[in-house]
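Re-running the complex after MR caught last week's input typo. The corrected sequence lines follow. Everything else is unchanged.
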Amino acid sequence: EPEVTQTPSHQVTQMGQEVILRCVPISNHLYFYWYRQILGQKVEFLVSFYNNEISEKSEIFDDQFSVERPDGSNFTLKIRSTKLEDSAMYFCASSSQDRILSNQPQHFGDGTRLSIL
Amino acid sequence: AQSVTQLGSHVSVSEGALVLLRCNYSSSVPPYLFWYVQYPNQGLQLLLKYTTGATLVKGINGFEAEFKKSETSFHLTKPSAHMSDAAEYFCAVGTGNQFYFGTGTSLTVIP
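Corrected-run output:
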């Protein structure tokens, strides 16, 4: 069964540095998402992406964050200047249709654990 | 505003016993409701979802949930717990353009 893959599984970065988290969604999916889960807290929606543009974003997704689909397979999340509070598990997800309205589920990757030092 | 409350951050049940994980939501519009499971070091996997129609929804691994509008609840149940059910369970609500997760319930199954 096709799956969403995320790399790296663990990223350690110095505060203030830029970090790029990479995701390869399922190949025929059209909608892409990033979520964040701070240790011990709930999963939080960051951003959704469709047709090469952001379709919606939460208040967490400020100017420090950006997303990109640089080619036909990758979907990346960039944090421009990392802060300590960016330490979290970041999940990528994809779906063939809109995540809320469709009968098709979102498929999640296993996550990238980002540790900011 | 929408929100999700999961009562009980940790639930322990004996193997073979009933599993009941509670979820209440608040929403100003008819919600879509979801349960996800997260096994250690893995991503989120959809267990089941309610959008419209029958209020009792059956999902994978023998789980089911019932949407009760009058109680604003969407509790997750399974008649008989297996050891493999030990995981973190998240309830989520989606309305319009927003999607919110609860804080999660960690399920422990005791042999």
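None of the earlier attempt is carried over here. The CA atoms of residues 48 and 54 of chain A lie 6 Å apart. The radius of gyration of chain A is 13 Å.
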